[in-house]
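so my prof wants the structure for this chain in the tokens format not the other one, which i didnt know existed until like an hour ago. anyway here's the sequence
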Amino acid sequence: MARRSKNGSILQMDVSVALSSIACLKSQSVPISLLIISRDSGVNAIESLMERRGAFDYILLETTGLADPGNIAPIFWVDDGLGSSIYLDGIVTLVDAKNVLLSLDEQPVETTATATQQSKHHATAAHMQISHADVVILNKSDTVSKEQLAKVHTRIRAINGLAAIQVTHYSQVHKLEGVILDLHAYDAVGSMDLADKGHSHIDPTISTITIPLPLLSDADLDNLEVWLRKVLWDSNVDLPSDFADRKVEHDFSIHRLKGRIFMTSGQVKMVQGVRAVFEITDVTEKTSSSPRGIADTRAGKLVFIGRGIVNLSLEESLHSCISSSFII
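here's what i got, hopefully its the right format
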């Protein structure tokens, strides 16, 4: 969570929740104050902070190593009661380069038949945290070889093709703003230049897939929204009649969704989603920028990060639900 205030002073607070720690960080130019709170007391702490509006530059919700960000992010992203004073800036995941592959390859503890049947799509805590991240800090890079670091980097990219990856040692980054803070990950979609990232053969559990979109009419957009509701809310993937013999795997989950939509009217819209929560909004001049320096094109796209989605035929399902001809 992030919010700007008018100054960078440190505020000592006595709130009715347990605080992990209060830390002050200073960048090269501007001092900033941060309050780090534990996961269990997150909501209550945010409510308390709202009563002291303007006191903090940034609020960081620090979760445990086993936390699932997907259960937390929607609370702060869509709750209108938080108003404009607090907004969800982005999710940052710290990855241990030396041990992350062991964590990703952990097998489920359950020995039931159901667990065995679902083991092919078993998502570890590491999978969940990487898949929801907007930024991945790949730390302890000095403790592994270049070959091992490249292998870890590729595995992370296969799981999450959208996240920016910062390679560090001792968790040191060259700057805070735009790297860890001020991400604006939920009010912009950037360039979404994924190339062929997210290969399922690298990590079959969680992958990133891209669906191209042509120019959409207003009717097409309505159909797209209906389709997203079916997929995200009901785990329902409708296929056209000529796919009747294809079995649809319903044991899947969408963790993150981003997209850019170009309309026949000339409007540009963006799609943002976490788990079952999503929104389609107009792109303003500010949010239409491409922070990685890649020029915009008129080709729309949807990007999904999730478990068990590689062979789900999402693209064919979407195409069958929208009236426009899908000639890209």
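also thought this was worth mentioning. The longest strand covers residues 253-262.
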